[in-house]
Amino acid sequence: MLTKTPLQNLYETLGEIELSGATGGQLQGNCLFCGKSNHFYVNPENGGWDCKVCQDDDGEPRKGYVEQFLEQLHELRLEETTNRGYDNLSKQRGIPADTLRRNLLVKAGDDWLFPTYDVKGKLNDLRRWNSRTGEMRGSAGQELVLFGGEKLAKRKKPSVVFVCEGEWDKLAMESTVRKVAEFKNAIVVGVPGAAIFKNEWVGSFKGHNVYVLFDNDSTGSNLTAAAGCLYMRYFQ
Ligand SMILES: [Zn+2]
């Protein structure tokens, strides 16, 4: 069996479809948008895709690249996600439903998808949270971003910024600071999972009043140290 490319994995995992070889090096599977069997084609090298049947909202053939797939899949799942779904996740995670809604989390089967954006605000991945194992996973090949980094990139005025560890902490902190008048305009960002703090993120904190809130464990202290070192190196 041929090894799957990261792009094939992305389409299969997020789209919950199975793709198999078709002519011309393309992959073929069922279309998650219209449900038609074997009408969804993907180029496993560049991520170009199209459905031979369905149309988008403008009546054009539904097609695109990874970016359009993520956007249209997110839109589809958003329409399917009910208030009851948000309420259940809220109970499970202890995060208010309106925070989950505002962050545009969407339900996908038993799992949830957590959208992340690049600094320009373009959707760059839907990280899947497995409700059974509690694991959160990004798609292979998609860049790891600072959650909320797109808001930080836009903020010119010196502001309070809270840096949390992981998606859920970011959401929990966000719901908390909203209740405090002093922090009404604060920005909350999250680093993705354990022990990742990228050099390139440091510049976006310049001029802001930054509070680092990582876990009180070894990963958390390593992260704090790494963030501190990077910050000093950058601004000295
Ligand atoms: Zn279709």
What can you see in these coordinates?
This protein is of the alpha+beta class and 236 residues long. It has two domains: 6-77; 81-235, Dna Topoisomerase Vi A Subunit, Chain: A, domain 2 (3-Layer(aba) Sandwich), CATH 3.40.1360. The chain is 33% helix and 23% strand. It contains seven helices and twelve strands. The protein has a five-stranded antiparallel beta sheet with strand order 1-2-3-4-5. Strand 3 (40-42) and strand 4 (49-55) form a beta hairpin. The longest helix is centred in the last third of the chain and has 18 residues, at 218-235. The radius of gyration is 20 Å and the shape is globular. The termini are far apart. The model has no long low-confidence stretch (mean pLDDT 91). Bound molecules: zinc ion. Zinc ion binds at residues 31, 33-34, 36, 39, 51, 53-54, 62.
